[in-house]
Amino acid sequence: MEKCTKASVQKLIGSVRERLGERVKAAEIFERCYADTLETTVKEMEDGTVYVITGDIPAMWLRDSAAQLHPYLAMAGECGEIRRIITGLVKRQMKYIGIDPYANAFNEEPNGRCWSEDETKENPWVWERKFEVDSLCYPVWLAWQLWKSCGCTVQFDEEFKKGVEIILKVFKTEQRHEQDSEYRFIRRDAYFKDTLSREGKGALTRPGTGMIWSGFRPSDDACTYGYLIPSNMFAAVIMGYIQEISEKIWNDEAVRKEAEILEKEIRDGIEHFGITEKPGYGRVYAYETDGYGQFCLMDDANVPSLLSMKYIGYTGKDREVEENTRRLILSEENQYFYSGRSAAGIGSAHTPAGYIWHIALAMQGLTGSTLKEKLEVLDLMVRNDGGTGFMHEGFFKDDPCKYTREWFSWANALFCELVLDCCGLGVQMEDEQERGDSICF
């Protein structure tokens, strides 16, 4: 880290320590996690871009990298180095989208390394080519948040605009996956969640719903039904961001209009096809649907999730549906909600049964309605660090010393976001900055 960046980090850590007061361990974990991402996962490249590994996997995920640097937006207004790092990441993300918009993870250079030898379109830059709608949302989300948090617009260059045009094209193609998409993905001799059915074409979906087909979830597991509702929610939100960028930065009415139409189609599809009735809960959002009437009523720890609706900025037509959905997914009606001696929370099909994810706990806190609820989740996460001083992918509900992925930067980042939120030091968008909210305890 540059000297100015270290000073800004230490200043923020000092404010956190002061506001957390007697929560000394929470402050210590925050300090360790907040410094770790910049020191161990971020690499500045000769071309001015920034490469960010996930932690223990030497590849860059579009999703994870955006989430990993998101907590540093809290410092972006006062630290030019942080702005440069974030804009460098956005530039590299858009470069990768230009190389292959269907890939979810990339190499530092075109060295041909990969997670597995899959049957799909090959490229030496690509580490893994699982098409996930959220992967194309996160770079736009991060770039827009950087603009709104500190006024920075240098990220919206010509390559970013080309990337946005590619995103729009892919989303429109995958609205008609059955008819128009050439994307295929097969991983032979693999667990069924690691490959797509129908010789790589994936889950069958009803055409004309307005929603976007996704091959895989944010967990990198294959979708059971092709319309992944949380990822479509995220896509609808970033269509709004693209409209604003097109109007205020690029003055491009054609791109703005294209995004406006897509947003309406996606939102209409979610509200019409993505809601079903659950006895005891009323009308709820499904996690996935095929558009023909089949649904997955569950939630997964990875973000976007149904739990993260408020976090990603999605608001539906009926607030009661959102509330019903939250009650459902934070109960044992959700097959991936686990309750044990150490904790209760949401896990994932990506990890063993009974393993709760720190990411999901952090999201539960970040979307909580009261400070008390947020602090309860924060304390729960601190108690379940497995004695490591870091967050993990998943930990066993009865014993936090049993965990997966000792080094998982996304989980560390979301813990930091929750701490900053509890302390009143989180990212504030331009329409929030006059409120002066500050929570001391």
TrEMBL record:
Which Gene3D superfamilies does the record associate with it?
1.50.10.10
Which residues, if any, are the signal sequence? none
Q: Which GO terms describe its biological process?
A: carbohydrate metabolic process
Q: Pfam families recorded for this chain?
A: Glyco_hydro_125 (PF06824)
Record's InterPro entries?
6-hairpin_glycosidase_sf, 6hp_glycosidase-like_sf, GH125
The identity of this protein, by name, is Glycoside hydrolase family 125 protein
